[in-house]
Amino acid sequence: MKPINAARLCLHGYGSHKVSLDKAIKTMRETGADMKTKYKESSRGGLAVNVIEY
Fold first, then answer.
1. According to its UniProt record, which reaction does this protein catalyse (predicted)?
2. What is the pLDDT of residues 7-30, one digit of tens each?
3. 6 Cβ partners below 8 Å, 6+ apart?
4. For a designed S-S bond to 41, which of 9, 28, 29, 46 qualifies (C-beta 3.0 to 4.6 A apart)?
């Protein structure tokens, strides 16, 4: 549902953006680089290390 809602929000806009896609991607990359690995949802953090299959 999140991607669908995000697409709907984008389509309801007027075509002008306050933040460019390039700036958004750069910011997300920098934020990810600053985060500790244990807080990332990957095989080394998040649910992967806290939920064990039986």
1. L-serine = pyruvate + NH4(+)
2. 888 788 777 778 888 999 999 899
3. none
4. 46
